[in-house]
Write a structure and sequence with these properties.
The protein has helices spanning about 10-25, 35-45, 60-70, 85-95, 105-120, 160-170, 180-185, 200-210, and strands at about 5-10, 30, 50-55, 75-80, 100, 135-140, 140-145, 150-155, 155, 220-225, 230. By secondary structure, the chain is an alpha/beta fold. The strands form 3 sheets. A 5-stranded parallel beta sheet has the order 2-1-3-4-5, sandwiched between helices. A 4-stranded antiparallel beta sheet has the order 6-7-8-9, with helices on one face. Strands 10-11 form a two-stranded antiparallel ribbon. β1, α1 and β2 form a beta-alpha-beta unit. α2 (about 35-45) packs parallel to α3 (about 60-70) and α6 (about 160-170) crosses α8 (about 200-210). The radius of gyration is 18 Å and the shape is globular.
């Protein structure tokens, strides 16, 4: 059985095109033409990825995304939007979407996003040699339990999303090394040779800082090198 993609989009013609192209790439698809149905399928059918339009009847894509995350689901969500407003894209990312793509989009670009997000969720760190339950240090104040994929600060477990966990673990494994936003999109988001919009990185870093920094305005862990990128500073 192939990976399952849920399409939540109210334009039947777009649903048909997406379903055709995804099926041709070996994916199984589920379709919903309104927000409430999309939310129900997302929670009951456990898809491997959700393609989510923002403008939906019955419930907006923003609300669908919020409720999926509130239910504890970490399914990758890629927003589909015809809007150009910056605030809409950032709000979707803030609510827990993993990425967005603006209509009209090229099929090759969409499939690259789908594959990258599904691949990210399929990667099993435990493929490495098993490690004891003893935590591993990430600097002086944070530790990681790789078996449970939990990062703690000052002995308190942090409530991180999978993306936030991946991001801090990647940077902390290379303290002091500066990574551009494009490089982080490639290594953490799994977008090979990424060239394009990198605001998803800035949103992820901002959310991460709110959870791990004593003062997010003066970060001690995830630092910025102006004009270059981000690095782990402890």
């Amino acid at each position: 059985m192939g990976k399952k993609v849920l399409i939540v989009e109210d334009e039947q013609s777009i649903v048909d095109i997406l379903s055709f192209n995804l099926t041709r790439e070996g994916y199984d698809t589920l379709e919903a033409l309104d927000g409430p149905t999309g939310l129900q399928l997302a929670l009951e059918q456990n898809p491997d990825l959700v393609l989510l339009d923002l403008m939906l009847p019955g419930m907006s894509g923003f609300d669908v995304c919020r409720k999926i995350r509130q239910a504890g689901s970490m399914v990758p969500i890629v927003m589909l939007t015809a809007r150009e407003e910056e605030d809409d894209k950032v709000l979707g990312l803030e609510l827990g979407a993993d990425d967005y793509i603006t209509k009209p989009f090229k099929n090759r670009e969409l499939m690259a996003r789908v594959k990258a997000n599904i691949r990210r969720m399929s990667v099993v760190p435990a493929a490495q040699a098993p490690k004891p339950m003893e935590d591993q240090p990430l600097g002086e104040r944070m530790r990681i339990d790789t078996d449970r994929a939990v990062i703690s600060k000052d002995g308190v477990p942090l409530d991180l999303t999978q993306r936030e966990y991946d991001l801090i673990r990647f940077l902390a494994a290379r303290p002091g090394k500066i990574f551009s936003r494009e490089a982080l999109m490639e290594h953490v988001w799994n977008y090979e040779g990424y060239v394009g919009d990198v605001r998803a990185v800035d949103v992820a870093v901002r959310r991460l800082r709110e959870k791990i920094e004593d003062d997010p305005a003066a970060p001690a862990f995830i630092k910025t090198k102006r004009g270059m990128g981000y690095y782990f500073g402890e």
